Amino acid sequence: MFVALRKNGDYVSLVEKWKRSDLLELRKDETFLCPACQSKVQLKAGMKKTHHFAHLKGAECTIKTEPESEYHLDGKRQLFHWFQAQGYDVKLEPFLSEISQRPDLLVVTQDRRYAIEYQCSGIDSALFKKRSDSYRQIGIIPLWILGAKWFKRMSTYSVRLSSFQWLFATSFNQPIPPSILFYCPNTSTFIKLSNLQPFTSSEAFSSIHFYKEDVVSFSRLIAPNKTTFPLLPLWVRKKHKWRANYSVYSTSNLATLLTTLYENRIPPSLLPAEAGVPLTSGYWFHTPPMVWQMWILLDLLLPLKVGTTFFFSSVMGVISERISSKDLIIKQLPLLFHSRYSHAVEEYLLFLVSVGKLTKLSNTKYKKIGELQIPSTLEGSLKMDEAILKKSGNSC
Ligand SMILES: [Zn+2]
To answer: What is the pTM of this model?
Structure first.
């Protein structure tokens, strides 16, 4: 950390440039305390490393913060100066006694307060949620930025994202779909992922924007990104790959689906084209879209006779059961409140309406009006996948 308390109650901050000799002088006859837990901290004035304070070995702070690497300290300092340069009221490591939290930065704008957490090491999801909730309790918007070493690009429009990285998905302007922000102190660059479309549990299509710290403003950084990318051809190709190699994607929670498909005499490579389509809120499912959408078809829509009506609640019932039996997993997204996974389910039904398989009779009631077709060949399935996404006018 950069800020500590002196004996006289003043704060001392190491974020500005200090001469090492001055710090050594200061350290001689001064005691420094942690503003959060009031225990003694050490002033570390190294030759190479960023000057900082650290709790004594073995004496952990009562406030759980991440172990501070050089990378973290460097990023935090750069972010502090970045906000400062834009004229924001920004506080470094303020201790918020009412909730016993110490964010990296607190930024106050005209109408909002943001707690900036620059996270470079892993964090337990329960702790992540607890800290985020406590900020919100006192009217502060938590804004988590990931260290860019967590950024794993796979192709021009796709990234690797674990459940941990998904925790950071946040909607700066709710109800705009979420983004994930990274910061790299080595290149002074922000990376912003938006238009996130997960295809598997660890891979997602995404718009990827790079912003140099000295040219982008905070308001620009958190503004929605309107530009999208040509998702559909990428999606169709990826889906074709999945069909041909589904066993590669096979995980334990795919086993039940494969058995059920076998019982229904549907080869996994020949799932109906209606299973596995991109949806605006599709990110709610940790389970891949090929799988969760196929469960809705198997458990409810395939056995249903054309002309039969059903309620939205029946679909949600099917989902809930598959969640309890662990065939489906919902993502943990502690920073999103404007949306929930039922939105993804509803968007899926509306997709089926747009391709002529269902009609919507009322807010809660649907009718099956078309049979779902099982492709007969892999090549045929590719054409059907293309055709159905075109027909739906899918604009994801
Ligand atoms: Zn402490």
So the answer is: 0.92
